[in-house]
Model the fold of this input.
Amino acid sequence: MRTQAHRHAVILAGGRGVRFWPRSRARLPKQLLSPLGGASLLRRTYERVLGAFEPDRIWVVTAASLREAVAGELPEVAARRLISEPEQRNTAPAIGLVAALLLREDPDAVMGTFPSDHHFERESAYRRALPRLLEATALDRLIVLGIEPAWPETGYGYIEFPVGTGPGLVEPTPVVQFREKPDRETARRFVAAEHFFWNSGQFFWKAGVLAEEMRRYLPATWATLSWIARGPERSFETRLAERYAACESVSVDRAVLERSQRVSGFAVNDVGWSDIGSWDALHSLTPKDSHGNGALTDATFVNAQGNFVDVPGKHAAMVGVDDLVVVETSDALLICRRGAAQDVRSAVDAVRKSGRDDLL
Done:
């Protein structure tokens, strides 16, 4: 069994959380918020992976503008393991850069990659699965985590496993293909087929195996990352600022996983996973009344069902309306249909085009 000495966690904390607007903003994005109460989503992610990784082997990649806030949330993370992207280039360069840095120190390094804004209702079951996922990296495969779908979600991508693949940690299974976010009818078919699983966006592999696949599928970007990583540590930030923007802006899913022949995965039972990627997702995690209404703040519902309310500082009354999301901040109000909450990004784009950058 591979010891923890070679295992490194990479927490991705640079996202904007656009679909969580107006609560999530550029200066205070979703991962730094506490939508479920208690610690921030970022802090919860750090604490969730601690058992499987030594504290000094946890890396965080974030935006330069968020470095101070992230450091405040995670004071245990060493400054040299907190990487600030001078500009966002999506997940392939972010993860690849850590791989390049690790290979300088440890050719046997193993990486587990974790988005910073996920939630698990059954954390103990998830924690028990982590060692198996890490051990599977010994097969020199790219290991992905598919989660048994609880409903036909259109906001998640899906992993297609061979027919007959059921949930449960047995052996890693070759992935047939990745499926983009489906429409409602396609999502229903996926769930009914029972061999499609939600793509959790969590990945496990040897740094060297990822490097081989990035050389194959993203050669220019890998060359840039290698150049940034191999110079003296004292000038790392300078090299990063000079060359990082040259990396292709692309997700590791699209650039590598969807093209590689070395992808296997585990299909696990429903562990109450959510990426809290939209207000619909938060509604699903919020206690609800007998008519499916959920509220994070004081509210009354009359002849109303399926609504979600987050309106701090005042009492909201929902009368004769169904399936609405109502979220208010000091300077913005969002009202949309549940089921259309994935389209909040379009509203943010419209706000940006109107010149109201102060609302972003």
